[in-house]
Every structure is written in structure tokens, then in C-alpha cells.
């Protein structure tokens, strides 16, 4: 193994040769099939979406503007209030990643992004939110819910607490052959669903039922939509929140753009009665999103955060 730079030494190195590539099920939103969505989320906690209605120009523009931003000097980047490097959350988690992050509709989020990016981020988040609503409506249809917006109402609400983040996994010249750096460690996302777009650089991995890791191909034309903690609760565990992580391979920089769909802070979260079978008991205590969010942000990335809210 090559002599490592001290910086690489302090980050987790992962051997990259042994991961299988997962065939993530695809839904084509020009002919949506709710059964495919349900099966994908039941089996893998992830689905790939094509013909999603988000314009290619907006996706490519954001990708190129974001890469321009991340190529600025550290001083210039650090002058942006929502820019963070190497730190993930407030509890000491670190990774080979830098990011821009802001809440979206419930705050003046555009002001927190660098001014050059604001128009494109605005267009992107507007379209991706519509996509989130459409997919959650498809879920309601597939589960034969009476109310079309039973899941999407949280994101339709003007006070929704959604976050938008752009992650950049920079190049690193000292990563030994056959290895990657841990860019973003194992975790689940606390919200309802996350919609992940990326450039054509791989690195995103999902935890499989046997606890091993599988790689997800990068596809800059499509989105991956994953099950987050709240959707697990709302469906009483029918869908499990997806444990995932991202590796930075050091030779090509990955960029990902993620919409984390969250409900209003005051929303009461509990399993939907209409989804439970006769006699089925709730597996989770009731909580508000604000309570859960506070607990989630106090914990380490890898903590099984729903554990504290499960009924024994
Ligand atoms: O950047 C990625 O590939 C995924 C990162 C992630 O999981 C997150 O930001 O929550
Ligand atoms: Fe995540």
C-alpha cells in the first residue's frame, strides 16, 4: 500500500473491489405503475425514477453551477453561511465531503445559497418537490388509500420542513489503488423521502438485507427516491428506512443534489390507521416531527434513531 498522507490516514479507507451493483427497480412516470413502486420500496427501500418531468437543462445547469462553486477557494466558499466542509451534523461526524445545505419552503432558503446558484436551485427544488408529491400520490393509489394526498399532504403544506443539500466529494490524490474514502457514513435520512440526483460519478451504496453493501449506479438523467424514517413510521414498518452511505473514490469528484421531504414541525407522526390490517398494532410511539428532528440531530449519524420511538 502506498504511503498515506496524514489526512487520508485519519479518514476511513474502504476496499472497493467487492461490492455488487444493485439492480434498482425503475418506475417510468410517463406510465406510472404503483405496484413497482411498492415492491421496490418493500424489497430495497429505493426506486429509480425516469421520465420524471424535471427538465434536463435544470439538472445539468445546477450540476455545472455547483461544481463551479465548489471549485472556488476555501475562503470564498467559507464566506457562504450554509457551506460546510468535512463535518456532517453537529455531533462530530466527519467525512470526505463538503456541502451546501438549507431548509427550503418554510424559510428564505435561496438567500442561504451563493447568489450565482439561486435561480437554478429555485427551479430545481420547485420541480423536485412536484416529483415528490407525484410519487407519494402514486403510493397512495397503490395502497388503495381513500385520500390521494394522505402521504403528500406533508409536503404540500406551506409550512413543510424540507431541506435541500448539495454534496461534493472532492478529488483526493492520496487514495491507494482499490480503495475509497468514506464520504458520508452509514445512516438513514430522518424525513419522509429523499430524492437523490447526481453527476455521473458513482459512490452511493445501500445496505442490503444481509447487512452487506451494494453499489447503486450513477445516472445523471434519473433520480433515486429512498424511504426515510418518517415513511417507515407512517406505514407502520411496511417500508423500512433505507440505510445508506457514500464513498468518495478520490479520482473523480461526485456531486449529489438531495431534496429531503419533511413535514411541518408541528405535524403529528404516527402509523396511519387506514394502512394497518384489522388488529394490527402500532409499532411506534406518537411524536411530532419537531421532537423527532431534535432527537435525530442530537444523535450520531450511525445511531438507529427510530429505536427510541419503537414500541417494545
Ligand atoms: O451524496 C450522496 O450520495 C448521498 C448523501 C446522503 O446520504 C445525504 O446527504 O443524506
Ligand atoms: Fe442520506
Automatic annotation (TrEMBL):
Keywords: Iron, Metal-binding, Oxidoreductase. Residues 159-263 form the Fe2OG dioxygenase domain. It comes from the Eukaryota. The keyword Iron applies. Pfam families: 2OG-FeII_Oxy (PF03171), DIOX_N (PF14226). This is Fe2OG dioxygenase domain-containing protein. The keyword Zinc-finger does not apply. It comes from Kingdonia uniflora. Belongs to the iron/ascorbate-dependent oxidoreductase family. One of its GO terms (molecular function) is oxidoreductase activity. PANTHER family: 2-OXOGLUTARATE (2OG) AND FE(II)-DEPENDENT OXYGENASE SUPERFAMILY PROTEIN-RELATED.
Amino acid at each position: 500500500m502506498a504511503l498515506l498522507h496524514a489526512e487520508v490516514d485519519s479518514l476511513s479507507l474502504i476496499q472497493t473491489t467487492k461490492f455488487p451493483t444493485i439492480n434498482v427497480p425503475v418506475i417510468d412516470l410517463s406510465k406510472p405503475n404503483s405496484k413497482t413502486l411498492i415492491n421496490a420500496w418493500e424489497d430495497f427501500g429505493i426506486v429509480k425514477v425516469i421520465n420524471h418531468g424535471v427538465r434536463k437543462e435544470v439538472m445539468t445547469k445546477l450540476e455545472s453551477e455547483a461544481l463551479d462553486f465548489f471549485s472556488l477557494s476555501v475562503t470564498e466558499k467559507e464566506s457562504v453561511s450554509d457551506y460546510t466542509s468535512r463535518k456532517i451534523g453537529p455531533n462530530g461526524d466527519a467525512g470526505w465531503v463538503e456541502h451546501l445545505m438549507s431548509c427550503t419552503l418554510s424559510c428564505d432558503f435561496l438567500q442561504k445559497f451563493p447568489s450565482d446558484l439561486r435561480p437554478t436551485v429555485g427551479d430545481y427544488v420547485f420541480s423536485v418537490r412536484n416529483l415528490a408529491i407525484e410519487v407519494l400520490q402514486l403510493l397512495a393509489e397503490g395502497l388503495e388509500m381513500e385520500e390521494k394526498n394522505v402521504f403528500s399532504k406533508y409536503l404540500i403544506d406551506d409550512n413543510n420542513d424540507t431541506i435541500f443539500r448539495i454534496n461534493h466529494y472532492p478529488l483526493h490524490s492520496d487514495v491507494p489503488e482499490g480503495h475509497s474514502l468514506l464520504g458520508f457514513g452509514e445512516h438513514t435520512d430522518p424525513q419522509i423521502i429523499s430524492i437523490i440526483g447526481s453527476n455521473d460519478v458513482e459512490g452511493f451504496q445501500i445496505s442490503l438485507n444481509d447487512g452487506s453493501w451494494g453499489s447503486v449506479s450513477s445516472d445523471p438523467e434519473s433520480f433515486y427516491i429512498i424511504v426515510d424514517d418518517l415513511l417507515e413510521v407512517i406505514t407502520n414498518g411496511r417500508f423500512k428506512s433505507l440505510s445508506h452511505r457514500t464513498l468518495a473514490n478520490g479520482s473523480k469528484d461526485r456531486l449529489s443534489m438531495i431534496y429531503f421531504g419533511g413535514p411541518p414541525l408541528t405535524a403529528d407522526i404516527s402509523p396511519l390507521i387506514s394502512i394497518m390490517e384489522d388488529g394490527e398494532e402500532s409499532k411506534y410511539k406518537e411524536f411530532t416531527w419537531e421532537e423527532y428532528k431534535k432527537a435525530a440531530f442530537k444523535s450520531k449519524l450511525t445511531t438507529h434513531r427510530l429505536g427510541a420511538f419503537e414500541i417494545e
